[in-house]
Write a structure and sequence with these properties.
Layout lengths: L3 E5 L5 E2 L1 H4 L23 E5 L1 H7 L2 H5 L17 E4 L2 E4 L4 H6 L7 E6 L2 E7 L10 H14 L3 E5 L3 H13 L2 E7 L4 H9 L3 E5 L3 H15 L2 E2 L6 H7 L1 H9 L7 E5 L4 H15 L8 E7 L4 H8 L22 H10 L3 E5 L1 H15 L5 H15 L10 E5 L7 H4 L11 H4 L2 H4 L2
Parallel strand pairs: 7-15, 8-9, 8-11, 9-10, 12-13, 12-15, 13-14
Antiparallel strand pairs: 1-2, 1-3, 4-5, 6-7
Amino acid sequence: MNHYFYQCFDCASRFSIEEIEPVFQYLCPRCGKAEKNQPLKGVLWVEYDYEKLKRELSRGEFLNLACGEFWHYPRLWPLDFREEKGRIILRDVTEQQLNRIRLNTHPLLENKIDERPIMFFDDTRNPTLSYKDRASIIVAVKALQMGIDEIAAASTGNAGSSLAGICARLGLKAHLFVPGTIPRAKRLQIQSFGAKIYLVQGDYDQAFDLSLEISKKKGWYNRNTAYNPLTIEGKKSAAYDIFIAGGGKVPDIILVPVGDGVIVSGMFKGFWELRQLGWIEKLPRLIAVQSEGSDALVRYLGTGQFEYRPASTAADSICAGAPRNLYMAAHAVKESNGKAVAVSDDEILQAQKLLAQQTGLLVEPAAAATLAGYQKLKSKRMIPGSQPGVLLMMTGNGLKDVESLNNWNPMPDARTAAEWKKEKEHNI
């Protein structure tokens, strides 16, 4: 059932499913390039017949769906499905398998920071505790449908642990290429899921290039972010979940952590599709938040030119010197009337502490960057200081990077029970 096609983001050429999927074609066959230390050229964008979808899908019925269960609306995914007794069913995927990969069904949380109300999108409770599950799930389901049982990817940690965990749940084998600086917790998570891990003496950009070379040689399906267009598709699901959880309303402003640029691109696509369907009137403003040590998108939006610089930041999940989806991410920010902001590692770690102690959300530094960005823009009066329409994306659990927590949690003194009983002296 050919209900979608591929279009090149750069040259706008269109391609059928048969020209892309059976031959493992990831980038545009005409202009696609994956060059060392450069953003990808010819990233593919999946499109559907939105006029037909308007007739087939009901806004009211869509809003009655549960968050985190993408299989209830397969017409909006590049997946095979069939209709059976009035039900739409994904091919070659069992109900038991789908139940194993359900995402967080209640992602929207309202809380307060310094007594000001603010909304959070919490993806720290997904199957492997991060937003990356949204992409890994779609890629893994596609692999099942294509009869593929081995998937490879490069990762700073979260995409790797996500792919490893999702593959373990679905009976697939994962191969992960990661930089030697990967946080220990993420490395252990990958290994514990039984995936094959390849520790690269270098940065994420080197791991990315190596994964492409080896996966092509071995014939493995590649999940690399942006390189595989289904990663962008998977990450658009957050826009749908925001729409469903909000009862058809979407925020005015969403702050998104940005490394490779696929989350912000995917979210833009999801909201763009909701507008194509006539279900929302305008796009939320997407605010891209980066670390000062990994700010390629901020610089690109300022100059219009990409200049490679090695990246270094405590927020490893958004550490990318050459953001692979830079151009689509920049498009997402500009088309949504958004902006990009860079924050320091100190600001990120302070935000991480604030989130944990004032909201009970323990998130990794990359997720905390959105609060740091919000505070920075608010102090400059570039966004409202208190507005119910502001949403912060919480994209990864804090236990994925326990080393960062050591920065603001010193080891407490150990004393005997008798010493602690001296209440006056030790101020218990």
